[in-house]
Design a protein that fits this description.
Length: 158
């Protein structure tokens, strides 16, 4: 059975393919023939201690792989690009995360889908909205475009 994955891509360190945006484009190519939609690459401020801006995008990938197999595939691509595990929120040549899966929810050791923080992250929701704005988030039933609007909306000051 073929399902669809929304994969978030990010880079804030040049690598063997060039600039962070070049790394994101090369990672999209590495995902192969199953890619069915690609957002624009956006530049965003870093989270945490990193000082380098990120290049971020989202792709839709069709695959017969179950979520754990897809995660292994993504981690193999990260390693091939030179990604090494290290400091959380640090600079990275490429980061690939499963954000949503058309199968709904998945929970196993080391993997939770939907991604725990995606619904509060503008750098994920803006590109995700471009390729899957009508996708309904498991649990809330809200469409991605509504989640993006909620993150964009100004918050009242305390």
């Amino acid at each position: 059975m073929t399902t669809t994955y929304a994969i978030a891509l990010g880079s804030n360190r040049p690598g063997r393919h060039g600039t962070p945006a070049d790394e994101v484009r090369a990672a999209v190519a590495a995902l192969g023939d199953g890619v069915r939609g690609v957002s624009a690459i956006i530049t965003t401020a870093p989270l945490g201690p990193s000082i380098r801006a990120f290049a971020n995008a989202v792709v839709l990938v069709e695959s017969a792989m179950a979520p754990p197999a897809m995660l292994r595939h993504l981690k193999a691509i990260e390693r091939a690009f030179g990604r090494r595990r290290g400091r959380r929120w640090g600079a990275r040549v490429i980061d690939l995360d499963i954000v949503l899966w058309s199968g709904g929810r998945w929970r196993s050791a080391g993997l939770v889908v939907p991604h725990a923080g995606y619904a509060t992250r503008d750098f994920v929701l803006r590109p995700l909205e471009q390729v899957a704005g009508a996708w309904r988030a498991p649990g809330t039933g809200r469409r991605v475009r509504h989640l993006a609007h909620m993150v964009d909306r100004r918050r009242p000051r305390p």
